[in-house]
Amino acid sequence: MSTPSTALSRGRESNVMPGERVIWDSMGSELHGVDLTAPFSDSQFNEIRRIFCKRHLLVIPGQQIDADQLEAFAMRFGQPDPVVKTEANDGSFRKAVHSVSNLNAQGVPTISPVINANYFWHSDRAYRPKGSICTMLHGIEIPPSGGDTLFANLILAYKALPEVTKKRIDQLKVIHSYEFMRETIMKLPLTEEERKKQQPSEHSLVPIHPETGEKILFIGMYASEIVGMPLKEGRALLTELQEFATQPQFIFAHQWRAGDVVVWDNRCLVHKATDDYQMDKYRRVMRRVVVQGTAEF
């Protein structure tokens, strides 16, 4: 298994094909010559999708696009996920394409934004029965340094587990719960409407990637319990697995530039933002859309 030469890989040049540059052996490609303001032919998009399925993380730099153009690109991967929760600072519902930032309701940078779950390891929509295919982030305003997004490869992590651990967990089921995350991380109880719409889902702890056939360690901040295991014991196991899977050798750190569009595979990567910059001084604003999953885990 190849590992980055530093604790967190920040890039390695390797021209693979016209327009593609591998940014880390274990996942990730940067695509050049792509213009998201222009329509793609089916053959052009199929090549992007092929690279996505192989590399699981795409960086498309220099994109000057609006929300409609980002949504149009997302729709080539599948159906954008409707957002039904009221997490916006003003309590309003968020659209499928929406902003995530370190700003308060007055648009001022803060060290304690209302939405803080993105600073914890997670796979978007893991609490849904079919999870999500991918998430796209478009960098709008970027701090001068810091504020990276970290990605951990759960295929690599599973492969690196001791065989005795694999045998222990291969047939286990895990509950992923949005309510669990809101109570433990955001400290923000669900409304009754949200509770009805965001029901927990049962998944395999070690599902098979629907396109590559590889085994995945399906963990993250929504993972609340192991089916059939005492709650304390199950949560201890989930904590142990997450600590293993988020070791430096499984992690890639993306350093943002304004205009970057980053697309990643939620089925086999967990991610989180970093807060290693002056959050109360510099604005960090992203535009985001999640594409719904199509296969049961």
Which helices and strands occur, and which strands form pairs?
Blueprint: E1 15-17, E2 20-22, E3 29-31, H1 42-55, E4 57-60, H2 67-77, E5 98-101, E6 132-141, E7 149-153, H3 154-160, H4 163-169, E8 173-176, H5 178-186, H6 192-197, E9 201-204, E10 223-226, H7 231-245, E11 251-254, E12 261-265, E13 269-273, E14 285-292
**Number of H- or I-type helical stretches:** 7
Arithmetic mean pLDDT: 89
CATH-scheme architecture: 4-Layer Sandwich
CATH class descriptor: Alpha Beta
The biggest sheet, with number of strands, parallel, antiparallel or mixed sense and barrel status, is: 8 strands, mixed
Question: Helix- and strand-based class?
Answer: alpha+beta
Sequence of strands across the biggest β-sheet: 1-2-3-4-12-6-14-5
CATH fourth-tier homologous superfamily: Clavaminate synthase-like
Amount of helix: 10-25%
Along the chain, the helix and strand elements come as EEEHEHEEEHHEHHEEHEEEE
**Would you count the extended β strands for me?**
14
N-to-C CA distance: 26 Å
Q: Which parts are unreliable, with pLDDT below 50 for 5 consecutive residues or more?
A: 1-18, 85-89
Shape: globular
Strand content: 15-25%
Q: What is the CATH fold-level name?
A: Double-stranded beta-helix
Could you tell me the radius of gyration in angstroms? 18 Å
Q: Domains counted in the coordinates: how many?
A: 1
